[in-house]
Each structure stands twice: as C-alpha cells, then as structure tokens.
Amino acid sequence: MSSAPYQPKHDQPFTLADAVDLDVGILSNEITRLRNSLDHLRASNRELEAFIKDPENADDTDGLEEVIKENEQVIEVQEDRIDLLKHALEQKIGSDPANKHYDSVVSAPAITAPPDTERTGVISQNDTEPVTGANQGHDPVQDTTPAVGEEGMFL
C-alpha cells in the first residue's frame, strides 16, 4: 500500500474517508454493482458501434456517437469509483497481493445474447425468466436497493 493519500481522478459523491467508514459488505456489494454496470455500458457501446457501422442504419444514427462518448465518460468515473472503494477496503482489511478478487482489471463476463435473440432483445439468464428492459441484469441476491420504506445508503 502506498504512503501517498489516494486521490480519485474524477469527482465522486463521497470521499475515501466516507468509504472507509462503510462496512466491508457494503463496499464489496458496491464494487460488484459497479462492475455489472460497466459490463452493461461496454456491451451497449459495442452494440451501438455495430449499429452505426451497418449501412442499413445510416439514417438512424444521429446522436449515437455522442451517446457512446457519454458512456465512455461514465465508464471512466465508475472505474475510478471502484479504485476508490478498493482503497477503502485495503485500509479496512489490509492488502493481500495474492487476492485478485477486487482487482479492477478482472470482472465478471458480460451477459451476451445468443445469435437468435439479438434482434428481439429477449434472452434468458436462467432459462426460465426472459430478460427485458424491466429486469435486465437484476439479481435479487446482489440487489442492495432498499425496499420502499427502508432506509439505506446509495453510493
């Protein structure tokens, strides 16, 4: 661990000191949530880039390059936030170079649609539930959003 204080590259909604005050489980869940978000942003950018390159879509691509740029900016901020959270974890539990669990380079593979479902946008995560805009990427086990009426901290 470095002796120089960690300073994020981008403005974040909380400081390293704020993050260190959080429970390890909250930090871990937020890292997982951010990695999932990054996977979806990167997949979205790949789909947008393919759509833009397709000559059949030439008339329907206005503004999509700007959307890709905005996604790339969000990706940078979220990667920076993961680094901030990892530094908080290191301060709380120490650093183990052999433990690559929180390594920002390593992340879960993105969910991709099988070729026969790419146009419909409906795929199945567990072969019983179709993934649509309403429930895409929702994992009730990983969901840290409080139910209505509950209090919670949103990072």
Keywords summarizing the entry:
155 residues; mainly alpha; 42% helix
Question: How much β-strand is present in the residues?
Answer: under 5%
* Total beta strands: 2
Tally of individual domains = 2
In the predicted model, the low-confidence regions spanning at least 5 consecutive residues are: 104-150
Order of helices and strands: HHHEE
What structural category arises from helix and sheet content? mainly alpha
Whole-number radius of gyration? Answer: 18 Å
Kindly, what is the distance between the CA atoms of the first and last residues, rounded to a whole number of angstroms?
A: 24 Å
Q: How confident is the prediction overall: mean pLDDT?
A: 74
* Main sheet specs: 2 strands, antiparallel
Number of helix segments? 3
Query: Biggest sheet, strands in spatial order?
Result: 1-2
Shape: elongated
Fraction in helix: 40-55%
InterPro entries: TMA17
GO molecular function, one term: protein-macromolecule adaptor activity
Structure description:
By secondary structure, this protein is an all-alpha fold. It folds into two domains: 16-110; 114-146, no CATH class. The chain is built from three helices and two strands. The protein has helices at residues 16-20, 24-53, 64-93, and strands at 123-124, 130-131. A two-stranded antiparallel ribbon has the order 1-2. A hairpin with a 5-residue loop joins strand 1 and strand 2 (130-131). It starts with 15 loop residues before the first helix and ends in a 24-residue tail after the last strand.
